[in-house]
Amino acid sequence: MKRVNVGIIGFGTVGSGTVQILTENRDLITDRAGSEIVIRKIADLDLRSDRGIPVDRSLLTSNALEVIDDPEVHIVVELIGGTDQAKTYILRAMEKGKHVVTANKALLAEHGKDIYSAAEKHGVTLAFEASVGGGIPIIKAMREGLSANHIKTIMGILNGTSNYILTQMTQKGIPYGEAVDETIKLGYAEDPPTLDVNGTDAAHKLAILVSIAFGAPVPFGSIHREGIDRLTPDDIRFAGEFGYCIKLLAIARNVGDKVEARVHPAMIPLGHIMANVSGVYNAIYVEGDFVGPNLYYGLGAGKKPTGSAVVSDLIHLARQLRNGTKKLIPPLAHVRSEARAIPIRPMDELRTSYYFRFSAIDRPGVLSRISGVLGDHGISIYSVIQKGRKVNGSVPVVMLTHEAVESSVLKALDRMDRLEVLTDKTMVIRVEGT
Question: For the chain, which terminal residue's Cβ has fewer other Cβ atoms within 10 angstroms, N or C?
C-alpha cells in the first residue's frame, strides 16, 4: 500500500501535535513507513480555534462519524479523551475493520476488556503507545522488547503534574496549595488538577502496564490509590533528614500467585534511581526475570511528546498495511484463547516500612504511649525525630518503622488517633527501595 489514509477524531493538544508532526516530518515518516501517511479527515467540535499549524479546512468536520464511516480511511486515531463517546467511536471503527490508534488511558484502564476483545474479534490492531508516558516508548518495550521475560517489578513516576508539584515543594519549601497554583499558572496542570494529584491518572497508566505484563485486563477498581494533597513541607523536610525524598509512585510487583498494584506517595532513598526524576518528567523502572532492570525516562505529556507517540503507532501500522498483514500483535501481546484473571493482592497484606508523623501535646510520656500502641501491633521503631517547635500548640513526633504489615498499621493508627495526647490525624507514608 503506497498511501495510508488516517482519520483523526480530536484536534486538541495531542491532535494538533500529531498533525504538526505528520506535516513537518512528512518525508522522514514516508521514508521510514515505506508508505505515505495522509490525513484524510479531522473531526472536532471546535473548528474555529487556531491550532498554530496550517490545515486544509476541507479536511475538517464536526461529525466524527464522517471519519469512521469513510471507506477510504484505513486508520482511525481517537484523541478526544473521556470514556463513553470515545468507546463508542472506537468500537464502531473496529466493527468497520479499521485499525485504531488511541492515547486514551482512562478508557483502556476502565473499559480495556471490551476494547481489547473487539480488536481480537474484528481482527484489527489497537495501538496505544501514547496512553502511558507521553513520548516514552514504554508500551513498545513492554509488548515487544521485554516479551521474553516474566515481569517482576514495575515502578513508575507516571504523572508529571504531581511530580512537578512535589519538586517545587522540595526545592522551594512551599506548601502544597502554593505549588499547585504555580503549576497551573505555568500550564502544567488543569484547574483543578484533581485526577493528577489524587493518583487516578497514574493508576490508569499502571492498569495498562500491568495488563500488558500479565496478559489480561486488570480491574481498575482493584488498584489502590492515594494522592499527594495531604503532604506538607515538613514531611518533605523530615524525609530528607532520614535520607529520603517523596515521590508519587505507581508500583506493581509479581508476588507469587498475586500481583501488587498500587499508587501512593512513597519515600525513596536519596540515592535511588528514581530520586532525581524532577519536574514534569516521567520515569518507569521495569525488571524482568532475564533482562534485569530497565529504566525509561522522558517527558510524560505535552503536545509534541504525546503526538510523537501517536505517529510512531501510525508508522507501525503503515508498515503492517504495506506488507499486507492484517494484525501482528494482540493488544496485550499475549496470544491466548482465554486470558486468566489477574488476582490483585489486597492492600492490607502489603509488608513494608512506614513513616509516621504525629501531632502530639508537648508533655512527658507521649512518646512512650505512642511506642506502646505500635508495639502492641507488632510494629517496631527504627528511628525517631522529635522537634520542639510547636505548631498550633502541638509538636511533631516523626518515626520510621521496620517492616510491618499494612493491616497491623491500620489497626494501630485507628487506636492511635483516639489518643487524647494526639491533636491531629497521623500522617502515614510508605517507604520503598530500602
Answer: C
Catalytic annotation present for 205: yes
The single residue of 41, 98, 105, 205 carrying the catalytic annotation is 205
pTM to 2 decimals?
A: 0.96
Question: What are 33-64's pLDDT values in tens digits?
Answer: 999 999 999 999 999 999 999 999 999 999 99
Q: What is the CATH topology of the domain spanning 139-299?
A: Dihydrodipicolinate Reductase; domain 2 (3.30.360)
Q: What does the longest C-alpha to C-alpha distance in the chain come to?
A: 81
DSSP state letters, 217-272: PPPGGGSEE--STT--HHHHHHHHHHTEEEEEEEEEEEETTEEEEEEEEEEEETTS
Condensed to tens digits (0 to 9), the pLDDT of residues 70-129 reads 999 999 999 999 999 999 999 999 999 999 999 999 999 999 999 999 999 999 999 999
Q: Report the CATH superfamily, name and number, of domain 347-431.
A: ACT domain (3.30.70.260)
- Tell me yes or no: is domain 3-133+303-322 CATH 3.90.470.10: no
